[in-house]
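Tutorial handout. Part one gives the primary structure; part two gives the three-dimensional structure as tokens.
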Amino acid sequence: MNKLSWTIVVLLAWTGWSVTAQNRAGAQDASRNEPAAIEQLTLQQGLVADRYAKLERLLDDMARIERVTNPQRAALLLKALRQSKENLTAVKLDSVVRLIGQEQLNRALENQREAHEDMKALLELLLSEDRPDRLQRDQDRLREYIREVERLLRLQRSVQGRTEGGGDPLQLADDQGRIAERTGDLADRIRENEEEGDGQTADGQAGEGQPGDGEPGEGEPGDGEPGDGEPGEGEPGDGEPGEGQPGEGQPGEGQPGEGQPSDAQPGEGENGDGQPGDGQQAEGQPGEGQPGDGQSDEDGAAQPQEQNPARQRIEAAQQRMREAQQRLEEAEREGAVQEQERAREELEAAKAELERILRQLREQEVERMLALLEGRFRKMLVAQVRIYEDTVRLDKIPEDEKDSRVPIPAGRLANQQRKLVVEADRALSLLLEEGSSIAFPETVSQMRDDMQQVSERLEAANVGLVTQGIEEDIIASLEEMIEALQKAQQDMEQQRMNPSEMPMADPQDQPLVDTIAELKMIRALQMRVNTRTNRYARYLDDIDDRTGQATDQELIEALEQLAERQQRIYQITRDLVLGRNR
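Part two.
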């Protein structure tokens, strides 16, 4: 998380604590409010207002610094600053300071809530820059969980087979215990990463009451403990209600509606009351002396977070393994096999749940990439059509006037075309990094080469039919890719509306576009090669001799480039057939 985003998380924590404190103060009679408490609230709110004012200045300063080296990030920072100014967030925070000092707590609370929502929206905007990386990290983590579940399944099948085959019960009990311990380690890791470490729920959504509440899909940062390592800033002290909780701070809000501990699968060493034994702390409850991860109620008791269904299945499998271990120690082979079978079923259910979550994340990544590429290609298409129209206009200038009227405007067009070459390079990098498409990167690569060739011809004031023909190929490529991207987005929307029609493929194999779209792109590439071959044939000494030999050096070089394109089309077609994009 970048510095700006973390600053907003801290401010959200402070405002969440302040809202809770004002709720408590507002619930009492004004005459009973302690002056010291009002003074403390005023001080805390003043620190928040000052910190936010510094944040706005930092946004402006960083936008100026980034303008030269990273214009895209500079634009994002300026957009965030405009959003903050339009929402009057700083003004709202200043007014809260004044209203608390006047003991107008209800009005202060209303402004505080609005400012809190404004900062959450600002955090979402700033975090959008990191969204691709976070999606990738989430997917990598889920893939590792799935691999570990598959290992556990293999181990469990092995020990179950040996149990059914009459192996030594004591040795099998030891082996079963080790598998159970490893299963418990995985459950602990999922709890730490998905429920405690960054406030995410099972499906990657930020948990209620977490700093990412309302954030899109990836979950948001941390437990939101305000100002760790920042003494003197006036953050809430130990023992304050909802300490470290940057949520809404409302009594009862942020409590998960389902998945309370009583609904959870029993864990290792649980006692008859359903509470974990052996010194384990209760699920979702903070340890002694720990700030609560969940939302606090009126008595300051932390409420449990929403539980991760995959982790619950894994814990249930662990419990079954412990039961099987006990049966083996007691030489009850038949009962042990039954428990082992149930443990295997729980692991398979956990794997299915993890694959469902991974599939959702992959769909989010694909949707984002499709929209991003479509927007980029549309802008490129508008610019390319403008260059083409200007090229045609220059070509219509009478021959005796071209030497004086064409070079300067053609040079300007060459500069514009070079900018599109840079845009094509960026799009190609995105596609190569995404990695699931074969035909799209090749189409963009060939289009980029054509753009470079057009820029060189325009620089030489060559605005004739050959230049225009290459520009027409570029326009056709952009239109075909935009159409394919739109079709892919429509297909995803249709699958979302009809889940029963969704293919149950490996979630890691979902491509950016389907095989039919890839084949259409390859067909379009081949047709452009054919068209350009026919065009070059007209430049032969004998136009009717289609097997004639080119003698012009420029034509020979163009034919060599065309041969390279034909070879690449053959290669990507072969790769598609062999499934090398999977």
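Part three, for discussion. Residues 140 and 514 are 23 Å apart (CA to CA). The chain is about 70% helix and 0% strand.
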